[in-house]
């Protein structure tokens, strides 16, 4: 693979400049105002695949944002890798907290990225990581060293729940047939501590509305005598966790898989500094479910979090008002064997049952996703581990992550293949936060590692 490596070394600047151009297009999938930019980004990705040498490049329409496809079938006797990634990004808000504009990428050094990092929305999640695969493919293909067939499926709706991708996978099952799905949309423990993600949490996301009186009222004339929906909503939310930060919704934990002591011990051996964790977040103490470590709380345990809450008067100064309505967006991260629909239903029933007669409540489900756990005793995982040994010089640590990628559970069910989640970002790269960034080390290390995966996977499948 010397030619591939040389190609990468000779094209470092080109690879970087192309990524910077990709990061300049604001592909915010959640906000309809950006729909044109989302499409432009799909076109950019399609062109990149063409330029890299892919065949059958096509932009597939969906009910939402388009899906980009491309492939290179070099030899039917070789295994086929399906690369999945997303070109959409989270909204950049609050924009005023960014040190530089979110869609004008700049390179700056940080403590964890002494070689420099690219600051831009999507730099790590997932444009930077997705593009790693396009560039690795370009290097392998143009060097004549592509060791597997490859297919790309890059979507534009991951950050809004991948609602249209499931149907697409069902409809295009034959086109997408493959031996393994390869994704870089998760993280490694540190730049000198490689890891491979072997789990994702599922998600149930709901919006709740609590309605009191039929209009906003004078809080002196009516206050104390009529239910205040914000007060009520706050109490309802507070009641859903107890003093041990355990979720109180009946049935919520019924299907939660308990790990053995040995499994828990093994996962807590992963390098982790609670002090560094607290320092990075500027908190004096962590918070979470009693009886579990921070690593466990953020991966193998389910959660309930308010993501946003609003209602009443929030303008300048004071307005004495008893609001008519209160709202909240609530997410529950799920673990095996909870299912999104079931937990949404359990939540809905519980939320309605704890509402006092003085208010009416409504629960509106948003998107969901199922949890996944990936075995390590497979050629797929082993090829990824060997690839990381080659390029990091260290055995990667298998680690379950706390985030969600809704489509992954479906790959197993619809395409009948294993997924490899070989991410190259860091948890501290501020994905979804202001000042998101992606290390140059990580970008290039990804481009370098992926060809090793192809080679080991082809060898292991012989
Ligand atoms: N790439 C993340 C998921 C992730 C990040 C997994 C870090 C593991 C480690 C993905 O883009 C994401 O943000 N997913 C959403 C899913 C949701 C919008 C349906 C999430 O987890 O909130
Ligand atoms: Mn992502
Ligand atoms: Mn994301």
Please describe what this structure looks like.
It is a single chain. The mean pLDDT is 97. By secondary structure, the chain is of the alpha/beta class. The longest helix has 21 residues, at 440-460. It contains 13 helices and 20 strands. A hairpin with an 8-residue loop joins strand 4 and strand 5 (117-119). The radius of gyration is 23 Å and the shape is globular. It has helices at residues 2-10, 12-23, 35-52, 127-142, 165-171, 229-239, 261-267, 274-281, 294-297, 340-353, 379-392, 408-415, 440-460; strands spanning 55-60, 67-72, 80-86, 106-108, 117-119, 149-155, 180-183, 187-188, 195-200, 202-211, 217-218, 305-311, 321-322, 325-334, 360-369, 372-373, 397-400, 418-421, 425-426, 437-439. The protein has two domains: 2-200 and 371-460, Zn peptidases (Aminopeptidase, 3-Layer(aba) Sandwich), CATH 3.40.630; 203-256 and 302-369, Alpha-Beta Plaits (2-Layer Sandwich), CATH 3.30.70.360. The strands form six sheets. It has a six-stranded mixed sheet, with helices on both faces. It has a four-stranded antiparallel sheet with strand order 12-14-10-15, with helices on one face. A three-stranded antiparallel sheet has the order 4-5-20.
Descriptive keywords:
single chain; 462 residues; alpha/beta; Aminopeptidase; Alpha-Beta Plaits; 2 domains; six-stranded mixed beta sheet; 13 helices; 20 strands; binds ligand BES; binds manganese (II) ion
Rg result: 23 Å
- What ligand species are in this complex? ligand BES, manganese (II) ion
Number of helix segments? 13
The CATH H-level homologous superfamily of the largest domain:
Zn peptidases
Q: How much β-strand is present in the residues?
A: 15-25%
Pairing-aware structural class of the strands and helices?
A: alpha/beta
Overall mean pLDDT stands at: 97
Spatial gap, N to C terminus: 18 Å
